[in-house]
Write a structure and sequence with these properties.
Length: about 450
Amino acid sequence: MKRILYIMLCTALFTGCSEDFTDLAPISNRNEADFYNAPADFEVAINASYAGLQSTGVYGRGYWTMFEMRSDNTDQGPDATGLARQYTEINSFTEDALNEQVTSAWSESYRVIANCNVILERIPSIEMNEALRNRIVGEALFIRSLVYYHLAIGFGNIPLQLTPYVSGDELVQVDENTVLEQLVADLTTAEDNLPVSYSGSEVGKATKGAAATLLAKVHLTLGNNSAAEPVLRRIISNYGYELLPDYADLWGVANENNAESIFEVQYISGGIGQGSLFTNDFSPSTDLQTGSGFGRNRPTVDMQEAYEDGDLRYEISMGATYMNLEGEIVEARHVRKYQSDLAVENDSDINFVVFRYADVLLMLAEALGETPESYDLINEVRDRAGLPDIDASTPGTFEEKLLHERRVELAFENHRWPDLKRFGATGLVPDAETFITGTREYFYIPQREMDINPNFVQN
C-alpha cells in the first residue's frame, strides 16, 4: 500500500477541486471522456480516494482536532496565538462558523466523497473483471462511509450526497441518524465485496474487517446494540485479528499494518508530499521556533491521571517530560504514539491507526452490556496492560468502567469525542466554560457553505 501511494501522488497531479459548495463535483480536471473508461482508470481513482484520507482536513489534522482535542483527552498545547488560536477555540467550544480548521475538515471530507461518488456512478457500465469491480465498489463505499461517519458525528445536519454533484442541484441537509442508516446499508455491501486480507503492495487497503468494524460502530452509535453484536462476533471469529502481546509493538513505522491493525491511513515520507505531520505536530517544544515540535494535541492533566498505577500503556502512549535541544529535561505533556525519526520536518512515514482489534473487543462488551463475558473482554485488554481484572463488584457503573477502559486503551486515536457522545457523557469535558450539554455537541456548519446554500439551517 505504501508503494501505491506513489500512484496516488501521480493522480493528485491531475486532481483539483470545485469552488462550488463542498467540492462535491467530480474532481478530475481531465476530460472525463478520456477517463473512467478502463479498469486501470478506476484503480487510479480509488487510490486517489485513499490519498484523500491523508489530507490535512481529514486524518492529517482535521479529525484529531474534532475528535480528540474537542474531548477531555487533549488540548491545543502551550501556544494559543496565530494558527493555534483556532485550536484553542475548538478546545474551549468558542469557535464560530469561520474557524478554518473546521472548514477544512468539511471541505476536504466532501472532496473525498466526491471522488468516491464518481467511481460508484461510472463503474457499473465499464467492462471489467467482476471480482475487481466488486472490490473497488467495496473500497469506495468504505472510504465514503468512513468520511461520512466523521461528518455525521461532527456536524450532524449535513448533505447526504450519494451521486456526483451537478451544478444547480439543491443540496438538502439530513440529520445524523439518517446518515448513519445509509452507512449501515453501504457498509454491509462493502463487507460483502471486500477481501479478508491483501498481500504484497496492496496491504493496507480496506478489508472485510475494516468495513465490519465501522459497521459495528455505526450500529452502536444508533443504539442498535443487538445488531452490532453479530457483526463484532464475525470479526472476532472470521477475520484473523489478534491482540499483540506487547502494547509497544503497535506503534512505530516498523510495526505498521500488524496483526492487530484493522485499518490505517497510509503515509510515506521522502519529500513527495505524502508524509504525515503527526510527529512534528505532537512533539513538545518550549520554543516553537526551534522546529522540534509544535506541542499540539497535548494530553490534559485529566488524561494523564486517567491511567492507573502500573498501566503499561502510559509510557507508550504519552510522556510528561522530554529532553530539549539543550539537553535539559523539561516538563511537557505530549503524545508518544506517533513519534518517528524524521529526515525532514513534517514528512513522517508514520501511519494513523483508524481501527484495531482492541476496539472490537471493547465494542462487543458494549454491545452485550454488563455480563461475565463483557468483563472477560475488558479484562483481555487490561491483562495486556499489566492491570488486574475488574468485575461487577469493582466500583462504578458498567458504562463508567467501559468508557474509562476505552479512554486509556484508545487514547489519541480519535475515538474519545464519539465515545463521549455515544455514552451520553459529554458533560465530562473539563475547562469548557461555554459548553452546555445539548447545545455544542455539533460544530457549526462552515459559513462558506451557509452563504452558498441559503436553505441550510445552522447548528
